[in-house]
Structures
1.
Amino acid sequence: MLIVFLGPPGVGKGTQGSRIATHLKAAHISTGDMLRQQVEDGSEIGKKVSSILEAGKLVSDDLIVELVESRLSQEDAKERFLLDGFPRTIFQAEALDSFLAKRNQEVTVAMLLVADKEEILRRLMARAKAEGRADDTPETVAQRLDVYHNQTKPLVGYYEQLGKLQRVDGVGTIGEVFDRLLKVLDESTSASESTSS
Ligand code: AMP
């Protein structure tokens, strides 16, 4: 079960991604978490990316693809993973596909968590006020939403064309959204098993 988890910032990908991954015993790979960790550790990569993260822009495709490929090569990510925050560009999606093709694998399903613009803005602003992450300030929220619309949203069409896209309503309690996600995952797994047999 190789899951790509898509959706705008603030839609609840992090919360749901980690719950779903735990439930499926899959590796939860959040590129945002990986990069924040590098910044916290003060590594070379961390120094390179910290201002980019704070500005709400995307780090370079080459850098993130290399990080993800090395993470996916670890034992726990060979059969089951949930990618949260990656891919974010068509380049990254194509890189992921060719990386997986070399291991005779492909993405099982791309789950798109959706919520309307007002709800997203409301959640992001609430998070910014609660002084969560360094990039959750009102200034960078707009930037991150712009980046999502311009660079990441095209992935919806990309996975749709491959017949792998599933849209899930992200509005509701954590439990409600989780149940919806599980239902869609169940359906996708049985569909992909019946096509591969
Ligand atoms: P996230 O926690 O997924 O919202 O990611 C936080 C920040 O990390 C983003 O605003 C980007 O600066 C960077 N980032 C995370 N994932 C990627 C990616 N796949 N490509 C480029 N930059 C990324």
2.
Amino acid sequence: MRKKRFFCPEGQADKIIIYGGQPLQGKIAISGAKNAVLPIIVAALLSKETCLIQDVPRLADVEIICDVLSELGAKIKLDPNGSAHTVEINCRDLHNYEATYDYVKKMRASVLVMGPLLARLGKAKISMPGGCAIGTRPIDLHLKGFEALGVRITMEHGYILAEAPVLKGARIYLDYPSVGATENIMMAASLAQGTTIIENAAEEPEIVDLANFINSMGGKVVGTGTKVIKIEGVESLGATSHTVIPDRIEAGSFLVAGAIAGGDLFLENVIIDHLKPVVAKLREAGVEVTEEDLGLRVRSEGKFQALDLKTLPYPGFPTDMQAQFMSLLAIAQGTSIITETVFENRFMHAEELRRMGADIRIEGRSVVVEGTEKLTGAQVKASDLRAGAALVIAGLVAEGETIVSDIYHLDRGYDNFVTKLHSVGANIIRVKSRDRLRLVSEV
Ligand code: EPZ
């Protein structure tokens, strides 16, 4: 059983304090991708052998998904034999098929266990995910895909009960290229009888990484990274060792931090191809971004032009970078329009940026951002992990002191965000809420 934990409940009330005005100089190593490692850890359920996953970011969400798997019977070791950022998982003996309300409420990605449980045990009982700060986030497309594979779905007392004595391959068209639905259906289909075709599939790089992980266990998944994915079901899946791809959203967040704060920041361990939409928009704003060996360099004098932005499924501009760009455009020269097409309620950070002097007007699914001369430090609250990152980024350039609370959101998706920014010159600390000045180094 797992013994190590990096995130404790007391950390929930910590705050981040930033004093703006410091340019960023130096190098940051990007961690493994949160949105790749979560489905990959879940996919270990498909195998009865031991899976070794490396470059695992140190995130609260990783701990939660490991707890969910442990409840199902998985044997998990964090950092086995002292090797950092590694998870060893063996799911030979599964004795439970339920993801309870407590877990699903804590982290929506827990619903991803449905596909592997149906593939391994022929049944799954999952608490229906409620909404969250950024939207209702239904899972109707996941369930429609499972029904096409022969799964019987019933719902009662807030739980979804899914049963399928046999999973049979099918042709499935997704009404919307949902990342989670593509991943869940792919995992179920990998052990189904026959071939499954997913059309209008999500194309995110994290889905390609998941398919590479499944194939490394003996799976037969082709076409990921395009709109049509073909999965040939196999009898069983074996052991593997896999290294998670770098986090394109963490990297994008630091590119924006470097642009807004000014200076010269180098990011190592990035896959440049995954950042094309983000780099294109930074360059359109007049920010210098150059490709060097295995990294990206951002140089900035802290001045940039307004631009229009629309979030779209990959390879469009990522919704997970929308908040961070709003901070940047808040002090760009001119008027910008940001349109959020993926989630229906992902502008909560706009109110908080207004407290810092931003001139932002919400109009339905769009916001109009009038660039202002400066931002001023204020007490603000993170509503989700990307909003939290956006507020810290705004604090890097705001005049005076910015205090960001509810930073447990950040711990879910950023590995040592404060430590990394501090290491390149940001005037930033993380403090326990009860002790405003004592510096608490991040885990
Ligand atoms: C994944 O969420 C990511 N999370 C999100 O990252 C990311 O924002 C999102 O994909 C879009 O790229 C993980 O990978 C763990 P979706 P997911 O299913 O799978 C609607 C972050 O900040 N939809 O592609 O939940 C849904 O309501 C997080 O790292 C249905 O209508 O996203 C939303 O409007 C936030 N029915 C849209 O599709 C369904 O059955 C996109 O959802 C499924 C989704």
